[in-house]
Amino acid sequence: MTPSATYSSEIVEGAPPETSDDELLLRRRKRSKLGSAIEGLNLTAMMDVMTILLVYLIKQYASAPENIQFAEDLKPPASITTDTLVPGVRVMLSRSAILVDDKLVLKLQDGRPLDATSGDVNAWTPVGAALGTRRETIQRIADGGGAPFDGSLMVVADEDTPYDVLYGVLYVAGKEQFTSFRLITRRK
Amino acid sequence: MAGGGGGQEELNLVPYLDIMVNLIMFMIVVTAYIVELKEAPVLPPAYGGGGGAGDQQKAYLTVAMADQGYVIIAGGSAEGTEAPIPKKANQYDTRALTGKLKELKAALPNLSESIVITAGSTQSYSEVMATMDAVRFDGVATKPLFTGVTLASVVQQ
Q1: Are the Cβ atoms of A186 and B36 closer than 8 angstroms?
Q2: DSSP symbols for A19-62
Q3: Please, what's the largest Cα pairwise distance for chain B?
Q4: A179 vs B contacts (CB less than 8 Å)
Q5: Minimum distance, in Å, between the CA of residue B125 and any CA atom of chain A
Q6: Which of the residues A52, A112, B61, B76 has the least number of beta carbons within 10 Å of its own beta carbon?
Q7: Does a structural domain hold residue B80?
Q8: Which structural domain range is residue B71 located in?
Q9: Looking at the whole model, is its pTM more than 0.95?
Q10: Chain B residues with CB inside 8 Å of A150's CB?
Q11: What's the pLDDT at A93?
Q12: Is residue B70 included in any domain, yes or no?
């Protein structure tokens, strides 16, 4: 029942003589009733909405393929391409290390292997081994009813990475049955 | 229980609400920043030459990134080598490359939609990506030029 309805019903029920004091009293009562409606603002519904929004955003953030941690020595190049990111096995080439799905597999110095020349195919053996292990894991999961291995590889590389290093990693990935390479870029 | 305050007081939700609003704003800002990442597809390196999967019957172009500039090779042989596109102010002339590729695409009807890019050990990934943009698009992403890009083995310079 709204405050105005309460007010009008009280007037009818009581049927008092309409003196100026009574009118004043009724006006005060009306004012106090309106005030109490504002006092009792229920925040629980708003909390529910906020919690649902927060959980949704956290879930989306955690599962996004572009959830990539950048550092000073890992800044992808700019590009005009507009293709959106698709999840896949991720290899990251910074100036100091190569990581496969966030696991360190090879240390670099200024973007090149520490103890071998980048032209040497053997320099990329640890990267190939890590990618092969990852592929086998995905295939085992697929055998158990999971998503099949689609040969997709996300390459997140620093913009100063030498071409021979990038090519070396793509070469060993190709040998490990990765067939779809996607180079991650910043939007220009 | 004397003076135990048996009445249930309402929990003050305002501080919780403040935290929630701040967290949501933070998440939205972070998500908006992340969305700026995009991807450029690359065909796997072709073992034993060729212009990429399923294109063996068509003529293909190779763009070599030499130290002096771009060298375009049509058909994968030395006879098909076009005049080189020199660097401008020590930068690769990507605009001239796009123009030249458009000319070649119009002149050679049997040209593959895939193109091969190769570079030396001195070229950086950002230079390769700029070349990929020049090869894949005619200035803007809405105007495609060559849809497939293959990265070939390193050129010895």
Answers
A1: yes
A2: -HHHHHHHHHHHHHHHHHHHHT---HHHHHHHHHHHHHHHHHHH
A3: 105
A4: 44
A5: 5
A6: A52
A7: yes
A8: 59-151
A9: no
A10: none
A11: 93
A12: yes
CA nearest to B149 within chain A: A181
Q: In terms of CA atoms, which chain B residue is nearest residue A87?
A: B39
DSSP B33-83: HHTTEEEEEEBPPPTTS-SSTT-TTSEEEEEEE-SSEEEEEETTSGGGBPP
pLDDT digits (tens, 9 = 90+) for B8-58: 676 778 888 889 899 888 888 877 666 578 889 888 765 544 444 455 567
Specify the CATH number for the domain of residue B122.
3.30.420.270
Distance from CA of B138 to the nearest CA of A (A): 11
User: Are the C-beta atoms of A128 and A168 separated by less than 8 Å?
Assistant: no
Residue B117 in contact with residue B148, Cβ under 8 Å? no
Total domain count for chain B?
Answer: 1
Distance from CA of B142 to the nearest CA of A (A): 9
- pLDDT value at position A105? 93
Nearest neighbour of A157 by CB, restricted to B17, B37, B125: B125
Share of chain B above pLDDT 90, in %: 29
Average pLDDT over every residue of B70-82: 75
Q: How far apart are the first and last CA of chain A?
A: 59
Note whether ipTM > 0.85 here. no
Cβ distance of A54 and B119 shorter than 8 Å = no
Q: Which of A60, A154, A181, A187 to mutate to test the interface with B (most CBs of B within 10 A)?
A: A181
